[in-house]
Amino acid sequence: MRYIKLNKDLKKGQKQFPFPYFFLHGALKNILTTLYIDKNFEIRGVDVHELTHEDLFSKDQAKSITNTLIEEIERLRDENSKLREEIKRLQ
Prior knowledge:
This protein has 91 residues and is of the alpha+beta class. A hairpin with a 5-residue loop joins strand 1 and strand 2. It has one helix spanning 59-90; strands spanning 19-25, 31-37, 43-50. The radius of gyration is 16 Å and the shape is elongated.
């Protein structure tokens, strides 16, 4: 059994559940794991792929990773904007 420690803020701003969370691990960062996390922060599914130097991401994998990253960037932009407004208000 493996234990995974995730930041609780990870689910903030998520619009759909379960949402995918991707990470690389292994001695050579050659294992791609996708966790599907529900609104209660429970893992509902796992996909694990061992990558080799010949591996390329499938179109669906690349699209899913890209969409997740874009959503996270948008969430961080919104948070940054709110924090800047709060800083201005406090000054």
